[in-house]
Amino acid sequence: MTVRFKDLCADAADPARVAAFWADLLGLVAEPRDGGLRSVENRWHWDVDAAEVEGATTLRPPGAGRPWTVMADPQANEFCRFP
After folding, report:
1. Whether 30 contacts 19, CB under 8 Å
2. Strand locations in the chain, DSSP E?
3. What is the DSSP letter of 20?
4. Average pLDDT of the chain?
5. Cα dihedral sign for 63, 64, 68, 73?
6. pLDDT score recorded for residue 43
């Protein structure tokens, strides 16, 4: 059986901004939808392999045997950037 990734859906206070951030980071096309405010924080977690991530905020840099950087997208959803 073949499985293919289809969509990434996320709740956000500013859906267009979050959609643009992730679409740019992953080289995808954003199709933002209308919706209410985020009801649960960090409903998903991404790990990305990238030299740098433009538009994200560094929350915790690598250290103490941890090679990844904990970052946040424009709506404070956390993800990890691996070197």
Report:
1. yes
2. 46-49, 57-60, 69-72, 78-82
3. H
4. 80
5. negative
6. 66
